[in-house]
Design a protein that fits this description.
The complex is a heterodimer of chains A (about 200) and B (about 750). By secondary structure, chain A is an alpha+beta fold. Chain A is built from 4 helices and 8 strands, in the order βαββββαβαββα. In chain A, strands 2-3-4-5-1-6-8-7 form an 8-stranded antiparallel sheet, covered by helices on one side. Chain B contains 23 helices and 24 strands. The chains are: A alpha+beta (about 200), B alpha+beta (about 750).
Chain lengths: ~200, ~750
């Protein structure tokens, strides 16, 4: 993937409890204090007051992690901003960080096992309109790599659909009827992310 | 995928040439600074002048609730300013002159918020838009994309003329003398980058208002305020401005003073230029805390300032730009997109009536209205911004404004379209009612992102919004017109001085631990362009603020007489009564009993590292200083009561007494023999706390101590109501600084 600024969102399962701001804010602060993710995390910011907004965000130097409410569907959104790995490793690295962070949340005692992510659907975006406008040409260019990732994750039929309008970020919804456990997705993506 | 490699290449000539050159230069300066070839202070001022500001933790240190951790940025110790690490996220402030935005500009703002920030556009109390968590190396492209849309960030921060603000209703308002927008536009671009505005010692703020009585322009607390006036001259209506100067909020607010009751329109730009020269020449350079124009006016007096400005005016070389804009005062006019029409009777959408009641304002032009978009804490998302741009395109065209109460405004809505506009806003989650009510709370960024923040003004505002809704007070017709404003520190960006209920972030020491507090400020006036400033009654723990708001609002609702303002109500029931409520809520359980008060709203981290719990000795020190500081606060409160009774001299004496008590309390920790004479207290305080800089605030330096020294020096001078008011403000800040000093030094206070 030539573009460096990539996003992946994994949605909260429809039958799962959500993560209220007052619960997830302390969790994100703990991530910073305990270096829960092997990269520099800087601060936590709360936008839960904005409907369908960024929710609660742990701001990092290279990556931000949003408990995102965008589009009216909560999920964990991993936003890679800089210090990207080589192009061939970017998508895989993004997936590892996303699933690793999601699995941390699922396991966090603050949620008492009630927060679960739906693994059969992902939203991929390129957060760079210069590199990738939201059109069919971009889709054609990145599709092989996205298919490769989806094949690796699901090992079964999957579907890629470009979504959004011309002013939106380039976005592709990845769906699969084979909703494998989150731990399996993480393992297939390559396991815990490398340190940045 | 795009083959274009850079935004500079992609945007090409869409970036105005001059603006493009400035951004290229800035990009080069970034590279030079990375190579260490520009000195960090110079680079800091350079980036500030491009709107790229620092943010909390940009010194690379962050307290995680248990200990301070170093943020190990990859660029290491490289800096973009003194104590400001290169990689630390920063804030980009974007000037929106008189708040005017087009739909296309809103689209670009949405895009850059998404790509370089965190998808949030934050509207400020001066009609700017701010993006947070932006990396310095992203700012040139961010600025190019804005420039291509007609927005410059030049001089958004730094020692410059800041965003020129104006009433967002200008041109469609029913009470204005005339439309001030073409004047605001002309003055913005005349002063932008002007030779005479490049050498200020501090920032300079300008505001326009179409009338004197409303709040929308807030000219009273600006360096230069211009209020539209007309005169009949030889049977013709002549336009001009009532010009006021030297106002400002900040730590000690000053009311602007009348410079000219009618400055002819053709003199507006040259007088502003002459004033800039006077400010450049006479403004303080060394002491930042006294460098604003208000201090020049105060020092010289209004008459001498005026004489100097007029003298400078006479020396100016004529500039055709002074009057060129007058040839087309319709240049900023807007034309409605859709025909005017009455609101249809019949079935209206759910919630429409409530929204219309608070958020729709009839225009001067029949059949049209303005619709206020109430933004929670001034925030909207990139998606909402795009939705709003589309709503504007469909219903009104380019008629958007930011407002000083952190909202957005759609103008030229045909009244017939109001239900459809409302429905579209509901879809975009932008149809929140309650604009301008008690629930529409203004707050500066505070500790969320501002490195000067002491308490979390934003999280407090969010909590107040929830609790007012839960208690029903936001719907109570007796109180819903009240204004609540919160500032995270004494710099007053939340404009708490002019609120009915203002809150100013401070901290206090309770049992050896720091506790976030807010000073309750009452008696401010929002109308009349921010016509009067309130005074602090006392500090309450942050977690108790909702309770005090509910108690005061409920009491006002129950006991107010017809049309009695909140300021009049507080006068009637007396500050002693309010102070009693404050005192009741000041007491909190110990940390061991309930630690919740020891963290701030929205932030689970313990509010402070406390070195006060180290040993028993510290425990012995605490009570004496705390008791004395509490006495000092009571003195300040008494001084307010005296001032309310018109006893300015006595009020000032009591305020000075508060300072002396605080200073002595600290000084006695170094020398137990300090007596009670003012000279001795000053000498000991100066020796142990000022000369050693122990008293210095990390950001304000020795400013608060200087208030104290001056108060002692000038104690025999006769006081006016205004001077006593100011002294009370200064005493409040000094006593608060004493609290901070005491907390900072803790047990080290007694070390010799």
């Amino acid at each position: 993937m030539d573009a460096q600024k990539l996003q992946l969102k994994i949605f909260v399962a429809r039958d799962s409890a959500g993560a209220p701001a007052e619960t997830i804010i302390p969790v994100f602060h703990t991530w910073i204090r305990e270096h829960a993710i092997p990269e520099l995390l800087v601060d936590v910011t709360n936008y839960a007051h904005v409907p369908e907004g960024p929710g609660v965000v742990v701001i990092g130097h290279a990556t931000d992690y949003f408990y995102d409410e965008g589009g009216g569907r909560a999920g964990l959104l991993c936003n890679r901003k800089r210090q990207s790995p080589p192009p061939a490793e970017r998508l895989g690295d993004l997936a590892r960080r996303t699933f690793y962070a999601a699995s941390l949340l699922e396991r966090d005692p603050a949620f008492a096992g009630k927060l679960r992510f739906a693994t059969g659907e992902l939203l991929f975006r390129i957060n760079d309109r210069l590199a990738a406008s939201n059109d069919d040409a971009t889709f054609a260019a990145v599709k092989p790599e996205l298919e490769g990732l989806a094949r690796r994750l699901y090992e079964s039929p999957f579907d890629l659909t470009r979504v959004g309008g011309p002013k939106d970020l380039f976005a592709v919804r990845i769906t699969s009827p084979n909703a494998v456990p989150l731990a399996t997705l993480l393992e297939r993506a390559g396991g815990a992310p490398a340190a940045i | 995928m795009s083959r274009v490699q850079t935004w500079k290449e992609a945007l090409g000539t869409r970036v105005p040439e001059a603006w493009g050159r400035e951004i290229d230069i800035f990009e080069t300066q970034i590279e030079l600074r990375k190579k260490g070839r520009i000195e960090e202070k110079l680079f800091a001022e350079t980036r500030l002048r491009r709107g790229a500001y620092g943010q909390r933790y940009d010194n690379g240190q962050r307290h995680d609730g248990e200990k301070t951790q170093t943020l190990a940025f990859p660029s290491g110790e490289a800096t973009k300013g003194p104590s400001t690490l290169w990689d630390a996220p920063g804030m980009e402030r974007i000037k929106i002159p008189y708040g005017r935005l087009t739909a296309d500009q809103l689209d670009v703002l949405a895009a850059v918020a998404e790509e370089y920030s965190d998808r949030i556009l934050h509207v400020t109390t001066r009609q700017d838009i701010q993006l947070h968590f932006v990396h310095i190396e992203d700012t040139p492209d961010l600025q190019r994309r804005l420039a291509a849309a007609g927005i410059t960030t030049r001089e958004a921060c730094g020692n410059t003329v800041r965003n020129v603000t104006a009433c967002p209703y200008a041109g469609v308002c029913r009470t204005e003398s005339f439309d001030v927008q073409p004047y605001a536009q002309a003055l913005t671009f005349f002063l932008l980058g002007h030779d005479d505005t490049q050498d200020f010692g501090r920032k300079f703020k300008v505001a326009f208002s179409g009338c004197r009585d409303e709040a929308c322009g807030l000219t009273n607390f600006h360096d230069l305020g211009a209020i539209a006036r007309t005169r009949n001259v030889d049977g013709r209506t002549k336009r001009g401005f009532e010009v006021v100067i030297g106002g400002g909020l900040g730590s000690v607010p000053q009311n602007a003073l009348l410079f000219d009751e009618f400055l002819p329109e053709e003199e507006l730009l040259p007088i502003a230029q002459a004033m800039s020269r006077v400010f450049s020449r006479l403004g303080e350079r060394q002491n930042r805390a006294r460098a604003r124009f208000k201090f020049v006016v105060k020092k010289l007096g209004i008459e001498e300032t005026k004489r100097l400005v007029l003298e400078e005016r006479a020396k100016l070389r004529p500039d055709p730009r002074w009057t060129a804009f007058l040839a087309d005062l319709h240049a900023t006019d807007e034309r409605p997109l859709r025909a005017a029409g009455p609101l249809a009777s019949g079935t209206l959408p759910d919630g429409f009536a409530a929204w219309r009641e608070t958020n729709v304002i009839p225009q001067r032009q029949d059949g049209y209205a303005m619709a206020v978009i109430t933004l929670p804490l001034g925030d909207l998302t990139s998606e909402q911004a795009r939705d709003l741009a589309n709503i504007a395109r469909k219903f009104t065209g380019d008629t958007l404004r930011t407002t000083v109460d952190q909202n957005l405004l759609l103008r030229w809505v045909s009244e017939a379209d109001l239900p459809d506009v409302y429905a579209a806003l509901v879809e975009a989650h932008l149809a929140k009612p309650g604009a301008g009510t008690i629930a529409d709370i203004t707050a500066c960024p505070g500790t969320d992102t501002c490195k000067l923040g002491i308490s979390s003004s934003r999280a407090l505002a969010a909590e107040l919004g929830k609790e007012l809704a839960a208690s029903g007070l936001d719907r109570d017709p007796n109180v819903r017109h009240l204004h609540i404003k919160a500032s995270g520190c004494f710099n007053s960006c939340g404009q708490h001085h002019v609120a009915d209920l203002g809150f100013l972030g401070v901290s206090r020491n309770v049992g050896g631990r720091r506790v976030p507090h807010f000073q309750l400020v009452v008696g401010g006036q929002w109308t009349h362009n921010g016509g009067a400033y309130g005074l602090a009654i006392g500090a309450v723990p942050s977690k108790r603020v909702p309770e005090i708001v509910k108690r005061l609002a409920a009491r006002y609702s129950k006991e107010r007489t017809a049309d009695e303002s909140f300021a009049d109500f507080t006068k009637r029931i007396g500050k002693k009564t309010i102070r009693a409520i404050v005192e009741e809520l000041q007491q909190i359980p110990s940390y061991e009993q309930d630690p919740s008060n020891f963290s701030d709203w929205g932030d689970p981290r313990e509010y402070t590292i406390s070195d006060m719990a180290e040993g028993e000795c510290a425990g012995e020190v605490v009570p004496y200083v705390e008791v004395e500081l509490a006495s000092a606060e009571r003195e300040i409160f008494e001084s307010q009561l005296l001032l309310d009774d018109g006893l300015a001299d006595k009020a000032a004496a009591r305020a000075l007494s508060a300072m002396l008590i605080s200073a002595r309390a600290l000084a006695r920790e170094k020398n137990a023999n300090v007596g009670s004479g003012a000279d001795e207290i000053v000498a000991e305080f100066r020796k142990h706390f000022y000369d050693t800089q122990l008293f210095f605030d990390p950001f304000a330096g020795g400013k608060f101590a200087q208030y104290f020294f001056r108060a002692v020096d000038e104690q025999k001078q006769a006081q006016t109501k205004e001077s006593a008011h100011q002294l009370i403000e200064e005493a409040t800040l000094f006593v608060d600084a004493a609290h901070q000093c005491y907390t900072r030094l803790g047990s080290a206070l007694r070390a010799s």
